[in-house]
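In keeping with the milestone schedule agreed at the kick-off meeting, the structural modelling team has produced records for the first pair of proteins. Each record is given below as a sequence line and a structure-token line. The laboratory manager (R.T.) confirmed that both were archived under the project's standard naming scheme.
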Amino acid sequence: MAQIWQNIHEGVFKHLENLEEIVLNLQSKICNSNQLQAAQKSTHQLAGTVATFGFEAASHIAKAIEILLQNQPILINIDSLLL
């Protein structure tokens, strides 16, 4: 099990980096629907992966973040709409 964790822990940290980026974008109100969907996918995958390795608290937190992201209104950077 330890060897498997060694093989996938980098992916777990990549999911965390993606989540950090989306949180910053949400705070700046420059998040688009693609970013939001990517963040939802990352949290879903993160929740499952960490649960597999017994990190139940981390899994519950990731699931809660996923739910919050699902209920997040889509924010679009107004500059991206200007042609």
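The second protein of the pair:
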Amino acid sequence: MWLITSHGRRTCLIKRPVWNGKTTIKKQSQFACLFHNERGYTILNLLLTFFIYIFIISTVTIVFHFLVSQSQHPKDLKPFEWELFVIQLHKEIKESSDVVVNETNITFKNKHGQQININKYKNLIRRQVGGLGHEIMLLKVKTATFRQNESGFELAVVSEAGKRYTHNFRSYKELVEI
């Protein structure tokens, strides 16, 4: 049911919903009416919504980055660094011959016949070719232990933060006994 009223000389049709003989006026929120236009959605509404959206997204990304960066100990290895190191060492061992495993290092010959030595040096694990060079393979290492076993050898690394990482390298070639 609709109420139609007229004011003075002009007849103005005001349509308001009527229930039980009383008119009800739907109160709109101030925020929604701020840029309300009878023709629809205005450019001001679009800009306001866009800026609110950009603010929320930028705030969430900054907070998320802060939370993720604080969850990692600064002296600990990053997971992708460890995985990359393991993959690289596994590839070199797979293509090598005459693998000798000591407590402190691994020595082998690569496919070009060069003598490769991988050992711990200060707080990192390095790779040397023919006893020369200093190619860093892994940083933030407190201890590194190489242990020969029946299927290959095991590498145990303790990071500067005290976290222990281990990996078993399986060799399908013979290891040289010391």
